[in-house]
Specification:
The protein is built from no helices and seven strands. The protein has 82 residues and is mainly beta. The chain has a six-stranded antiparallel beta barrel. The chain is globular and about 35 Å long. It starts with a strand and ends with a strand.
Length: 82
């Protein structure tokens, strides 16, 4: 499922970077694009999370030790921030 990722002051992730979750050995998704967003005041990215992933357990970008990302749902009008 296509999701949005809020990454704070982390570097902009490269397209194709994998997403990881604590307790899972394999990647749970990947980044499709990222940018430093003036509108959000932080690094944001779009990417896909595999089915069965639980965003509430935390997502890391690039490796299990990579920067954390807060997962946000997208709809036809854009990002859902609540």
């Amino acid at each position: 499922e296509l999701m949005g990722f809020l990454m704070g002051s982390a570097p902009v992730p490269a397209s194709g970077q994998e997403l990881f979750q604590p307790g899972r050995e394999k990647s749970v998704g990947w980044i499709t694009s990222g940018v430093s967003s003036p509108a959000f005041g932080q690094t944001v990215a779009l990417g896909y999370l595999k089915r069965g992933s639980d965003p509430d357990l935390g997502i890391r970008v690039g490796s299990m030790e990579g920067p954390p990302a807060q997962v946000r749902t997208l709809n036809d009008e854009g990002w859902i921030l609540d």
